[in-house]
Amino acid sequence: MDLGIRGKVALVAAASQGLGRATAMAFAREGCKVAICARNAGPLNAAAKAIRTETNAEVVAIPADVMRADGVTSFVDGAIRAFGGIDILVPNAGGPPAGSFETLTEEQWAKGWELTFLSTVRLVRSSLPSMRQRHGGAVVAILSMSVRQPIDNLVLSNALRLGVVGALKSLAREVAKDRIRVNGVAPGWIATDRTVELQRIRAERESRRPEDVQATLLQDIPLGRMGKAEEVADLIAFLASERASYITGVIAQIDGGLYRGIF
């Protein structure tokens, strides 16, 4: 299926590994020009090289920390200088630290706010003027299944990502008149380094083996396996594409059937 985004400019934050890297690869395969960022230049440049080698796409790698306002500015301005504008934005950042309500410090709450909420707000605000100049665009934020049901020991994600959802849903109504669509994805348990780390933390907390923790998680997933980063990336590419031109204000689950709620 041709998604109709060949030649579009796609910005993917935190794309040196995991869901961000897979998403950048998906856009490159669709013929997009891709700008990626991450804090560490080494893994970032390695990811850009791998994407170029596999897809022959134009890829620019911009070292930047989206937790910082100047990092967001550096990333967005650098992408515009390289490619002339922005058509697609994928706000993304490393997940906030694990912890329960009372164990997390004031500093961790503040940093979680910067990382999870403000990074998305800043990325979107910085990108909207270019999208309006280009008469439209798409925002697809990477969230978590925690926006549907809280995850034990991940209170920062549970709390702050819901704030992101509220902002995105509000924004979708405000910018629809400018032909800018705003959606998000809520992945369940995906086979990434982040998931491995969370399973390790849970195993230590419960005095269990990581493989036993994973087995417990898989029992609750009707499809019986972890998702692949590429599967999430394909959903993001679709939501950003012309094939999803009537979809906005949606948070799309991709969790193998894990979430049991009706809404």
Which oligomeric state applies? single chain
State the CATH architecture: 3-Layer(aba) Sandwich
Order of helices and strands: EHEHEHEHEHEHHHE
What is the overall number of helices?
A: 8
Name the average pLDDT.
96
Number of domains: 1
Descriptive overview:
The chain is α/β, with parallel strands linked by helices and 263 residues long. It has a single domain (9-190, 228-254), classed as 3-Layer(aba) Sandwich (Rossmann fold), CATH 3.40.50. 48% of the residues lie in helices and 14% in strands. The protein has helices at residues 18-29, 41-55, 69-83, 106-133, 155-175, 193-206, 210-219, 229-240, and strands at 9-12, 33-38, 59-63, 88-90, 137-142, 180-187, 251-254. The chain has a 7-stranded parallel sheet, with helices on both faces. It is globular, with a radius of gyration of 18 Å. The mean pLDDT is 96.
Keywords, please?
263 residues; alpha/beta; Rossmann fold
Summarize the model shown.
With 263 residues, this protein is α/β, with parallel strands linked by helices. 48% of the residues lie in helices and 14% in strands. The protein has a single domain (9-190, 228-254), classed as NAD(P)-binding Rossmann-like Domain (Rossmann fold, 3-Layer(aba) Sandwich).
Secondary structure elements and pairings:
Elements: E1 9-12, H1 18-29, E2 33-38, H2 41-55, E3 59-63, H3 69-83, E4 88-90, H4 106-133, E5 137-142, H5 155-175, E6 180-187, H6 193-206, H7 210-219, H8 229-240, E7 251-254
Helix pairs in contact: 1-2, 1-8, 3-4, 4-5, 6-7
